[in-house]
Amino acid sequence: MRNKLTNVLWGLFFIAIGIGFAGDVLRLWDFELFFDGWWTLLIIIPCFISMIQSGFGVGSTMGFIIGVLLLMSYWVDFNFNVMKLIVPAILIFIGLRILFQSAFRKTIRYDDNVYRESGEGTSGYSSASNNPSEYSAIFSSNKIHVDDNFFRGTNLNAVFGAIVLDLRDLQPQHDIEINATAIFAGIDIFVPKGVRIKVNNVPIFGGVDVKTEQTADVNAPTIYLNSTCMFGGIDIK
Description:
The protein is an alpha/beta fold. The chain has 2 domains: 2-101, no CATH class; 108-236, no CATH class. It has 5 helices and 13 strands. The two termini are 28 Å apart. The model is unreliable at 104-130 (pLDDT under 50).
């Protein structure tokens, strides 16, 4: 459902731009895409759509806040340097997230009767046998090893950092969904053999590189990656 909504939003965005240019050509109105601070939309729009698609993840939410602050610096006459607000805004968001962790957390469903959750991942090489709903790396690195065959997915958020998700010890009998955001960051995902991979990515000066061989069996378990890469990249190995 969320994937359909994001497709609708992207479609409406491009339709609006097309109508704007068409009206300008027909002299119905004045349309200018490259206004002061237009480039901040390359940060705001993908992060906003990622928030709708995957919830209020660390990477998408922080990217959205940074983009809005940068856009405001062009349109609002501040008596101070708005760039200096970015770090305090990030710190405040992280603090709020710690205080209200359960409100930001997305529950991952494993079967019809069982739900599993755990806390945030930490730096180092940690086990994900309890299937945490989200891992983050902000100005840091995070390595996660998964060996629980009940694992059905997770959220990954890397901002000026790096995440390694190791799924090679899995023997999945079902599909897996991974939502990932990489902003000035890199994410490596090591997948088990015998799976198919489907990527739905929003690239902003970044992208996803699938380096592993996929099975030709259409009935094999599939790993679905929904991602946003902004000046960052995701490698599937």
